[in-house]
# Entry
Amino acid sequence: MKTNTEILTEWMNRKASKWKANGFKMFMGYPDAWWDRWTVVCTTGHVSNMVVKSEVHGSLCMECGCKCVIIAPPRTSERFIMSMLNGKRLRPAS
Ligand SMILES: [Zn+2]
# Structure
């Protein structure tokens, strides 16, 4: 059973490799455009443009305090993230 962090990170990395293959400029493993529209999702599925910075735990969700990871625009709806985390069938992220 994968953790939510693993599911999100794998999804994001798959998308990042596609962007890279299409010639987009990358920074720290992710396309520049993602950093321009910096968006995070926490491991329970909240989407936000703000985090609480913690020296020990890194970036934390403003709503629930869970760990956050960067995610790609344009798939930033909480509904999409929640269904992915709940294992519902989704069309493959393009
Ligand atoms: Zn949260």
Summary: The chain has a mean pLDDT of 85.
